Amino acid sequence: MKKIFEHIDFSRVGHFQSILEHAGITTHIKNLGASGASGEIPFHEVWPELWVVDEADYPRAISVLESYEPPETEDLTDWVCQKCKEDVGKEFGECWNCGTIRPETGPAAES
Ligand SMILES: [Zn+2]
Hints:
Distance between the termini: 43 Å
Strand order of the largest sheet: 1-3-2
Low-confidence stretches: none
Number of domains: 2
CATH class of the largest domain: Alpha Beta
Shape: globular
Structural class: alpha+beta
Bound molecules: zinc ion
Order of helices and strands: EHEEHEE
CATH architecture of the largest domain: 2-Layer Sandwich
């Protein structure tokens, strides 16, 4: 296994995990209980960690995350999935139909 990402905010780690899983990359999250699920764990500053199970997937996982645009941007527009040609709402970072990650720039980026 190889660690690809860590962040203090678990929701972000979990989000990246779902992106990679959609891309067919098996992942594992460590330190899931660090925020207090188990009272036995002493309070280190341990962040949730996202690991790629098969190291052969690691380069692809990096490129998947690098090409991923967070959906928080204000000026997003609806987009068309390059893979299955579905119309996808702007609030989705990935195709609801086939799981393809939103491309870095929209189909009509130039204006
Ligand atoms: Zn699609």
